[in-house]
Amino acid sequence: MDAEATIRRQGNSIGLALPPSILRHMGFAVGQTVSLQATPDGLLIKAKRTRLTAAELNAQCDPKAPMPDDLQAWEKMPPVGSER
After folding, report:
1. Is there a single domain that holds both residue 41 and residue 73?
2. Same domain? 43 vs 61
3. In 3D, which of 76, 47, 29 has the Cα closest to residue 18?
4. I need a surface site. Which of 33, 44, 46, 64 has the fewest CB within 10 A?
5. Whole-angstrom Cα distance, residue 27 to residue 46?
6. Which residues form the domain of 36?
7. Do 61 and 42 fall into the same domain?
8. What does the pLDDT profile of the chain (84 residues) look like in tens digits?
9. How far apart are CA 66 and CA 8, in angstroms?
10. The SpoVT-AbrB domain covers which part of the protein (predicted)?
């Protein structure tokens, strides 16, 4: 999808207003943070992920770390009610 935009001054900054069709096509939203990368072909704009996947979160865990005391106590509690 091709579109044009104009670089404008916004206060002490410079802004680039993206057409709504590009925002919709890319799945961008107003207020969203994006990453910018200068390439030999131009400017690459990518959505910056704010949420990690389960695999990424699990990769940060240390499987050799000791279990916290409160979780150890919870694991040793006897079953109650229909948990048996």
Report:
1. no
2. no
3. 29
4. 64
5. 10
6. 7-47
7. no
8. 788 888 999 899 999 888 998 889 988 888 888 999 999 999 999 988 777 889 989 999 998 999 899 999 988 888 888 876
9. 55
10. 8-53
